[in-house]
C-alpha cells in the first residue's frame, strides 16, 4: 500500500483512479529530521467514484480489523489523525474500538437536534447565570433549531454547519462575531451530546472562527488580554480550590507560559534535572523545546507524584487510565461565571507571562525562546540549526525571575487577608 504524509493539500488534490486506492499515513521528515509523527494504521481510502474515507487499521486478538472514522471533508485530516491516535491508545489498553462502536450502535437513540437542545436547556442551562442562560436560549431557539432542529444529530454534516454559520457571517447584514458565538454554543451542545453517548464526534471542532466579512462588516478583535495582580490573585484562588490535576495544570500555564495542549501532555519521563522537554511531535512548530523549571513549577509537579506518579502523564486524565488531560472547558466556564474575571481564557495566561517578563526586562529573543515562538525570537534557519539549545541560562533566569514576581503577587493577597482579619 502506498504511504503519504496525509494533509489537506494532498486530500484536496486526490483524483479518482481506475480502482480503489488506500494511502497510509507516514512520518513527515524534513532535512533528515522528524517533524511530525504519522499514526500507524491511519489511512485514507479513495474510491473509484472519488469519495474519500478515513480508516484506522489495527490488530486485536490476532485478527486484522478496520474502523471507519469518517469521510473527507466532513472530517479534516488533523481531526481524523487525532481520532486514529486515540483509537491506537485504546488498542494499547486492551480495548477493541470496533466492538465499542457496535455497542454504541445497539443503543436505540436517534434523537433530533431539537430534542437534544431541549435536554441541554433543561440540564445544563440552569447551572449558568441568568444573562448567559438567556443568550444561550436565544441562540438555540432563533439561530439553531429552525435550521437544524429536524435532523438527527448524528446525521448533521460539517457542510451544513458551515453553511449555517456562513449565512450569519456573510449574509445581508454580515455578523462574524455573532457567527462565532453561535459556533461556540453549537459546539457546547455537541459536547453535551457526546458525554451522553448521543453523538460520536463534534463536527464544529474543525470549523474555523470568523475574523471579518467580505463586505467589511464587524471584526472580531485580536485578543490582547493579560491579567493584572488583583486578577491573578483571584484566578489563583480558583486554581487552588479546583480538583486535581486541573488546578495544577492552570497553575503551570501561569508559571511557565507554555501552550495548553503541550502542558497537559507533560510526561514524567520528559522531566530531567529540572528541565522539561516538549517532544518535537507535540510542539506546535514541530521542534523539540526545552523549558527550565523554576522551584515553584517543580513543587507543583512533585505534589502530584503521589496521585499521578504511576501514570506516564503528570496531569493524568481523571476519566481515562494512563491518558493525558484533554479539556479545561469546565474550569474555564466556571471561572467565567463565578469569579471576578468574567472573560477568563487559559491562553491569556501565556500572554500574561509574556507581558510580565517584558516588564521585568526579559529581551524579545529570550522571551521567544521561552515561549517557543520563532517570530518573537527572530530565529532564521541558520539560528535554528546552530542555536537550538542556546540561551538556556537566560531562559532559566527569566523564568525564575517571573516565578518570584508571581509568588510576590500571591503573597500580597495573603498579606491583605491577614491584615483584614487583624483589623
Automatic annotation (TrEMBL):
<dbReference type="Pfam" id="PF22022">
    <property type="entry name" value="Phage_int_M"/>
</dbReference>
<dbReference type="InterPro" id="IPR025166">
    <property type="entry name" value="Integrase_DNA_bind_dom"/>
</dbReference>
<dbReference type="InterPro" id="IPR010998">
    <property type="entry name" value="Integrase_recombinase_N"/>
</dbReference>
<dbReference type="Pfam" id="PF13356">
    <property type="entry name" value="Arm-DNA-bind_3"/>
</dbReference>
<protein>
    <submittedName>
        <fullName>Site-specific recombinase XerD</fullName>
    </submittedName>
</protein>
<keyword id="KW-0233">DNA recombination</keyword>
<feature type="domain" description="Core-binding (CB)">
    <location>
        <begin position="111"/>
        <end position="194"/>
    </location>
</feature>
<dbReference type="Pfam" id="PF00589">
    <property type="entry name" value="Phage_integrase"/>
</dbReference>
<dbReference type="InterPro" id="IPR050808">
    <property type="entry name" value="Phage_Integrase"/>
</dbReference>
<dbReference type="InterPro" id="IPR002104">
    <property type="entry name" value="Integrase_catalytic"/>
</dbReference>
<keyword id="KW-0229">DNA integration</keyword>
<dbReference type="GO" id="GO:0003677">
    <property type="term" value="F:DNA binding"/>
</dbReference>
<feature type="domain" description="Tyr recombinase">
    <location>
        <begin position="221"/>
        <end position="400"/>
    </location>
</feature>
<dbReference type="InterPro" id="IPR044068">
    <property type="entry name" value="CB"/>
</dbReference>
<comment type="similarity">
    <text>Belongs to the 'phage' integrase family.</text>
</comment>
<dbReference type="InterPro" id="IPR013762">
    <property type="entry name" value="Integrase-like_cat_sf"/>
</dbReference>
<dbReference type="GO" id="GO:0015074">
    <property type="term" value="P:DNA integration"/>
</dbReference>
<dbReference type="GO" id="GO:0006310">
    <property type="term" value="P:DNA recombination"/>
</dbReference>
<dbReference type="InterPro" id="IPR053876">
    <property type="entry name" value="Phage_int_M"/>
</dbReference>
<dbReference type="InterPro" id="IPR038488">
    <property type="entry name" value="Integrase_DNA-bd_sf"/>
</dbReference>
<dbReference type="InterPro" id="IPR011010">
    <property type="entry name" value="DNA_brk_join_enz"/>
</dbReference>
<keyword id="KW-0238">DNA-binding</keyword>
Amino acid at each position: 500500500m502506498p504511504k503519504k504524509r496525509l494533509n489537506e493539500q494532498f486530500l484536496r488534490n486526490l483524483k479518482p483512479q481506475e480502482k480503489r486506492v488506500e494511502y497510509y499515513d507516514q512520518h513527515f521528515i524534513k532535512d533528515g529530521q522528524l517533524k511530525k509523527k504519522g499514526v500507524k494504521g491511519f489511512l485514507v481510502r479513495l474510491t473509484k467514484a472519488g469519495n474519500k474515507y478515513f480508516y484506522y487499521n489495527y490488530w486485536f486478538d490476532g485478527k486484522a480489523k478496520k474502523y471507519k472514522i469518517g469521510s473527507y471533508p466532513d472530517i479534516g485530516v488533523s481531526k481524523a489523525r487525532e481520532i486514529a491516535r486515540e483509537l491506537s491508545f485504546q488498542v494499547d489498553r486492551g480495548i477493541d474500538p470496533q466492538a465499542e462502536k457496535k455497542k454504541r450502535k445497539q443503543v436505540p437513540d436517534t434523537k433530533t437536534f431539537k430534542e437534544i437542545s431541549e435536554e441541554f436547556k433543561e440540564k445544563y442551562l440552569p447551572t449558568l447565570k441568568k444573562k448567559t442562560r438567556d443568550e444561550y436560549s436565544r441562540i438555540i431557539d432563533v439561530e439553531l433549531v429552525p435550521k437544524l432542529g429536524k435532523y438527527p444529530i448524528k446525521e448533521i454534516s460539517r457542510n451544513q454547519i458551515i453553511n449555517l454559520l456562513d449565512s450569519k457571517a456573510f449574509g445581508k447584514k454580515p455578523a462574524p462575531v455573532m457567527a462565532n458565538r453561535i459556533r461556540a454554543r453549537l459546539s457546547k451542545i455537541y459536547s453535551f451530546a457526546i458525554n451522553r453517548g448521543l453523538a460520536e464526534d463534534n463536527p464544529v471542532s474543525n470549523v474555523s472562527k470568523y475574523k471579518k466579512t467580505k463586505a467589511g462588516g464587524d471584526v472580531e478583535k485580536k485578543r490582547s488580554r493579560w491579567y493584572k495582580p488583583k486578577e491573578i490573585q483571584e484566578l489563583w484562588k480558583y486554581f487552588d480550590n479546583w480538583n486535581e490535576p486541573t488546578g495544577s495544570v492552570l497553575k503551570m500555564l501561569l508559571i511557565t507560559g507554555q501552550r495548553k495542549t503541550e502542558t497537559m501532555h507533560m510526561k514524567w519521563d520528559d522531566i530531567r534535572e529540572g528541565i522539561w522537554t516538549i517532544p518535537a511531535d507535540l510542539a506546535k512548530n514541530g521542534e523539540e523545546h526545552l523549558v527550565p523549571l523554576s522551584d515553584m513549577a517543580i513543587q507543583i509537579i512533585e505534589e502530584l507524584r503521589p496521585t499521578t506518579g504511576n501514570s506516564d502523564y503528570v496531569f493524568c486524565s481523571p476519566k481515562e487510565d494512563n491518558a493525558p488531560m484533554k479539556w479545561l472547558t469546565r474550569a474555564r466556564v466556571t471561572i467565567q461565571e463565578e469569579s471576578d474575571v468574567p472573560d477568563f481564557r487559559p491562553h491569556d495566561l501565556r500572554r500574561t507571562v509574556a507581558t510580565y517578563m517584558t516588564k521585568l526586562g526579559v529581551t524579545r529573543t529570550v522571551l521567544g525562546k521561552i515561549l517557543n515562538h520563532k517570530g518573537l525570537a527572530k530565529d532564521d534557519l541558520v539560528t535554528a540549526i546552530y542555536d537550538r539549545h542556546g540561551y538556556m541560562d537566560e531562559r532559566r533566569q527569566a523564568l525564575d525571575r517571573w516565578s518570584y514576581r508571581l509568588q510576590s503577587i500571591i503573597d500580597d493577597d495573603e498579606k491583605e487577608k491577614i491584615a483584614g482579619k487583624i483589623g
